[in-house]
């Protein structure tokens, strides 16, 4: 009996061990299956990560192009190119919608798609209202039933994405030959990218609007300049005649012998000269705005140019009791520039000084500056009332006249603007230094030959 009990115990022990081995084997197989599944999932995760990186790269490339787009049609073509990599469709097209016009295919990946006559309807209205809709079966949609049967037969599923801009509406249609291809993940990608496309479309349309407004403003400005130039030219001819007649009459014996007549003629002459200068400034501004102000380069006779400028402003200086002086530094270097425009710059600066100085002194100083950028320096310095800093900031703006209305001495507010433009046209600079109650100094620097 003892041996039988031992055999029974051993048999039970063997069965127990066999059962444990079977359980361990099942656990081992289950573990191997789980490891295999984890490896597959890891591979899938890596693939999804790789695809996400590829999609992100494609989107960034597309956004760079979209951000540079200046026209809507090329932008649509770029949208199709980028989304082809992101959504992996077989074909796609963009339908454009406009009031009282049939829907038009404005861009497509396949030339055959341009022949699609999109019917529109309730389904399209739902998409244009902002919904992204995927169709797993084109034949079941009422609007797709009106599209060419050959096209419906080639593609099994479609994704419809709304694209809105400021002035237009469009719908992106993505096609695939496999039924149910456009799953939730692809729909989400399309929605995200569509939001970026809509912003790009709005930006492109805004740029088009701005360009159109700019062109319209330029056309109006040119028309205005032509009108002002024509009117000013017509007015200047009789004013020149008045100036000539006054000069002739002032030379007559009757004017020399009759002080009252000479005074009246002098006033007429001065007023005509002022009016002539004003018309000249308006003509010059019209040329500047039209881009027709050219330089006539040559060697400038500095002393003669300054003398002619002083002769021109002498009546204005006399009217306010001012004394005008000129001081030329010895051995001035040769200046190659436009003598006529330099004379006009000096006249405008001297006239401005005469206008705002009473019973004072106005100096025209000319010297050379042999510094790093050799230049000839012209300074117009007056003993007038001077300007506050906020007035200096606005001084060179067109049609700007400083001071209260009762203290302004006529003019158009163009003289300094034109002086600044002409100085810069000749490659120079113009500066201003003014102290209230002390006076104002304008400094013009014109580069000498060989300087930059």
UniProtKB/TrEMBL annotation:
Domain Histidine kinase: 230-450
Annotated catalysed reactions: ATP + protein L-histidine = ADP + protein N-phospho-L-histidine
CDD domains named among the record's database cross-references: HATPase_EvgS-ArcB-TorS-like (cd16922), HisKA (cd00082)
UniProt keyword list: Coiled coil, Kinase, Phosphoprotein, Transferase
Entry GO MF terms: kinase activity
Enzyme class: transferase
Domain of life the protein comes from: Bacteria
Phylogenetic classification of the source organism: Bacteria, Pseudomonadati, Myxococcota, Polyangia, Nannocystales
Pfam families in UniProt: HATPase_c, HisKA
Keyword Lipid metabolism set for record: no
UniProt organism field: Nannocystis punicea
Gene3D superfamilies reported for this sequence: 1.10.287.130, Histidine kinase-like ATPase, C-terminal domain (3.30.565.10)
Protein's recorded name: histidine kinase
Coiled coil: 7-41
Its EC number(s): 2.7.13.3
InterPro entries: HATPase_C_sf, HATPase_dom, His_kinase_dom, HisK_dim/P_dom, HisK_dim/P_sf, Sig_transdc_His_kin-like_C
């Amino acid at each position: 009996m003892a041996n039988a009990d031992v055999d029974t115990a051993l048999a039970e022990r063997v069965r127990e061990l066999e059962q444990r081995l079977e359980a361990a084997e099942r656990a081992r197989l289950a573990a191997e299956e789980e490891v295999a599944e984890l490896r597959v999932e890891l591979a899938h995760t890596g693939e999804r990560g790789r695809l996400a990186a590829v999609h992100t790269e494609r989107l960034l490339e597309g956004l760079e192009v979209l951000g540079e787009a200046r026209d809507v049609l090329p932008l649509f073509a770029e949208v199709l190119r980028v989304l082809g990599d992101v959504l992996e469709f077989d074909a796609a097209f963009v339908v454009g919608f406009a009031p009282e016009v049939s829907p038009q295919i404005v861009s497509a990946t396949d030339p055959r798609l341009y022949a699609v006559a999109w019917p529109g309807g309730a389904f399209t209205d739902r998409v244009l209202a902002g919904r992204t809709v995927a169709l797993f079966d084109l034949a079941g949609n009422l609007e797709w039933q009106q599209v060419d049967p050959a096209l419906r037969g080639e593609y099994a599923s479609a994704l419809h994405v709304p694209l809105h801009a400021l002035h237009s509406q469009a719908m992106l249609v993505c096609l695939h030959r496999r039924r149910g291809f456009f799953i939730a993940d692809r729909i989400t990608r399309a929605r995200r990218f569509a939001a970026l496309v809509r912003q790009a479309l709005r930006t492109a349309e805004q740029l088009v609007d701005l360009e159109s407004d700019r062109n319209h403003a330029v056309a109006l400005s040119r028309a205005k300049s032509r009108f002002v130039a024509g009117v000013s030219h017509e007015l200047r001819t009789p004013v020149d005649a008045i100036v000539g007649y006054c000069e002739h009459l002032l030379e007559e014996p009757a004017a020399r012998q009759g002080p009252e007549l000479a005074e009246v003629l002098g006033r007429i002459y001065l007023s005509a000269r002022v009016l002539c200068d004003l018309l000249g400034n308006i003509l010059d501004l019209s040329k500047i705005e039209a881009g027709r102000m050219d330089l006539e380069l040559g060697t400038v006779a500095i002393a003669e140019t300054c003398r002619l400028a002083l002769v021109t402003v002498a009546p204005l200086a006399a009217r306010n009791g001012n004394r005008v002086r000129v001081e030329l530094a010895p051995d001035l270097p040769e200046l190659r520039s436009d003598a006529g425009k330099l004379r006009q710059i000096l006249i405008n600066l001297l006239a401005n000084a005469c206008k705002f100085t009473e019973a004072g002194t106005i100096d025209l100083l000319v010297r050379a500056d042999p510094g790093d950028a050799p230049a000839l320096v012209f300074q117009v310095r007056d003993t007038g009332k001077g300007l506050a800093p906020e007035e200096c900031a606005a001084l060179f703006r067109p049609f700007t006249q400083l001071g209260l209305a009762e203290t302004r001495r006529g003019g158009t507010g163009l003289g300094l603007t034109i002086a600044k433009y002409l100085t810069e046209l000749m490659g120079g600079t113009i500066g201003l230094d003014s102290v209230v109650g002390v006076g104002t100094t304008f400094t013009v620097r014109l580069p000498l030959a060989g300087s930059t």
